């Protein structure tokens, strides 16, 4: 498994991001979908990585800088047919490590409240993320769950 920075031009990556967006719109009302499209993922302040096994794309994830002390996990996705191989865990560990290297004190995220998001929430909890209120420009809503990790403490990740 190899994690590498990605320029968001590879057809497999674009297909995975399209799958991600489509699924978010299936599970949440349009006004409560906060997943970023390719254009927004290319914005300054966002780093994007992909996880590969040879020529097979296993997943992706991004880190957005919210401030000098806070980052946000974005666009965590594994293709539905390839889940359970550890790609999500690997890219999240990478994002947490980069956030620490950048000196962030807090790493936050927004995910869905729909039951289909429970595996993602469990993954985040296994790294030490805990439930919190909205951060940044997010507002409390019935379709979002907010989590954060204080980076001054050690993670529970294996």
Describe the structure.
- β3 and β4 (70-77) form a beta hairpin.
- Helix content is 28%, strand content 30%.
- It has four helices and seven strands, in the order βααβββαβαββ.
- A seven-stranded mixed sheet has the order 1-2-3-4-5-7-6, with helices on both faces.
- The longest helix is centred in the N-terminal third of the chain and has 17 residues, at 11-27.
- The chain has one domain: Gcn5-related N-acetyltransferase (GNAT) (Aminopeptidase), CATH 3.40.630.
- The model is unreliable at 153-158 (pLDDT under 50).
- The chain has 158 residues and is of the alpha+beta class.
Give the helices and strands as they follow along the chain.
Answer: EHHEEEHEHEE
Q: Mind telling me the C-alpha Rg?
A: 15 Å
CATH 4th-level superfamily: Gcn5-related N-acetyltransferase (GNAT)
Q: Helix/strand-derived class?
A: alpha+beta
Helical content band: 25-40%
Name the average pLDDT.
90
Strand order of the largest sheet: 1-2-3-4-5-7-6
- What is the name of the CATH architecture? 3-Layer(aba) Sandwich
Q: CATH topology, anyone?
A: Aminopeptidase
Distance between the termini: 16 Å
Low-confidence stretches: 153-158
Q: Please summarize the sheet with the most strands.
A: 7 strands, mixed
Shape: globular
CATH class: Alpha Beta
How many β strands by DSSP? 7
The domain tally reads 1
Sum up the structure in keywords.
158 residues, alpha+beta, Aminopeptidase, 7-stranded mixed sheet, 28% helix, 30% strand, GNAT family N-acetyltransferase, transferase, Acyl_CoA_acyltransferase
């Amino acid at each position: 498994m190899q994690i590498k920075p990605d320029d968001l031009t590879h057809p497999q990556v674009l297909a995975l991001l399209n799958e991600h967006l489509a699924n978010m719109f299936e599970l949440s009302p349009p006004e409560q979908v906060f997943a970023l499209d390719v254009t927004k993922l290319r914005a300054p302040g966002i780093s994007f990585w992909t996880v590969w096994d040879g020529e097979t794309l296993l997943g992706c994830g991004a880190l957005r800088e919210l401030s000098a002390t806070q980052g946000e996990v974005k666009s965590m996705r594994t293709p539905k047919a390839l889940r359970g191989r550890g790609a999500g865990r690997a890219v999240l560990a990478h994002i947490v490590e980069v956030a620490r290297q950048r000196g962030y004190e807090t790493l936050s995220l927004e995910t869905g409240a729909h039951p289909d998001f429970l595996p993602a929430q469990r993954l985040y909890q296994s790294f030490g993320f805990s439930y919190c209120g909205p951060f940044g420009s997010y507002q409390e809503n019935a379709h979002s769950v907010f989590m954060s990790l204080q980076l001054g403490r050690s993670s529970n990740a294996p």
